[in-house]
Write a structure and sequence with these properties.
This protein has 100 residues and is mostly helical. The protein has one domain. The chain is built from four helices and no strands. Helix 1 packs across helix 2, helix 1 packs across helix 4 and helix 2 crosses helix 3. The protein is globular and about 45 Å long. It starts with 13 loop residues before the first helix and ends with a helix.
Length: 100
């Protein structure tokens, strides 16, 4: 069996992969750090780590903004025509890796 090498091997963590794809959908490099900050906040809460502060208005606004932008971007992509899921995810990762 001749398998292709992973062109995204350098983007090893799941968090980085999601952040890269998110940045590609939004076409916004600043969204990488915003996503990672929100993910850390979420992890602190979910895993019961000490030091959890009240979620600020700024953080709530950022989370909603990212969610709206990604939802809008994915719908726009879907309207361009059907593509295999693996192709879409790979393309987003390729484009988003530049923002990491």
């Amino acid at each position: 069996m001749d398998s292709k090498p992973d062109p995204h091997k350098a983007v090893s963590s799941a968090t980085d992969r999601v952040a890269a794809r998110l940045a590609a959908v939004l076409n916004d490099g600043a969204s990488v750090q915003a996503y990672k900050d929100l993910f850390d906040l979420r992890s602190t809460f979910v895993h019961g780590r000490a030091g959890l502060q009240k979620v600020s208005t700024k953080q709530r606004v950022m989370a909603r903004s990212l969610a709206r932008g990604v939802a809008r971007g994915l719908v726009d992509m879907a309207l361009k025509g059907p593509r295999p899921r693996t192709d879409v995810l790979s393309d987003l990762l390729t484009r988003g890796a530049l923002y990491l």
